[in-house]
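We emphasize that the prediction below concerns an isolated chain of 247 residues; any contacts that depend on oligomerization or on bound cofactors are therefore not represented. The input was used exactly as deposited, without trimming of termini.
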Amino acid sequence: MSWMPDIEPKCPSAGNLHDIETLIVPRAHDLGGFEVRRALPAPKRQMVGPFIFFDQMGPAEFLREDGIDVRPHPHIGLATVTYLYQGEFQHRDSLGTNQMIHPGAVNWMVAGNGVTHSERTSPATRQNKHSLFGIQTWVALPEAYEDKPASFAHHGQETLPLLKGEGKEIRLILGTAWGEQAPVQTFSEMFYADAVLQPGAKLPLPDGHEDRGLYVTSGSVSIAGDTFDAGQMMVFRPGDPITVTAG
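Result of the prediction step, given as a token string:
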């Protein structure tokens, strides 16, 4: 499973879609006064691999004293992943966790048999104008782990594998890919990565995962001659060799 954000720059659109099993255009969804773009679940595709929700938060700008207030709410039988490009969140939960998350780090909360959490802009950040941009996903747990005790793990940016070279910078967030393994303890096969590609750089997707998807957060990419702009998710046919080229 791969989400490859921050791919630049833009180029014209095309679209034979011969390598794409499903093309998803996210829809707007309100989270208590803050709008997100939700790609999963979608009418054409309920999930990709174990990923059952995929929300793009922002980019958004906030005035002084404004911010995000996702009030305490419960989760059960899944895990949540928060990954930011800009801004910060203060995560609190019923396990006693009080954790800030900043760009490039990962918050991994396993709800298991039940947990309540909130995510808010911190009082310190509200003192000035600020921005927020990130992705939040939900991951389904295998049946054997759905009722395990809830847990929370935070992994800083410096602990995640970073692959650089040939115009590519790839940070592996979850799972295994390109010969690397992320430190987050997961319970099923997956991969989740953040990739920044320079113009013309090529990135082959790992072929050891049956389900693979890609989401463009900025700019555009081409795949086998077809061009896809920011705000689109592509899900690929199992087994097809896929190479992504930045515009």
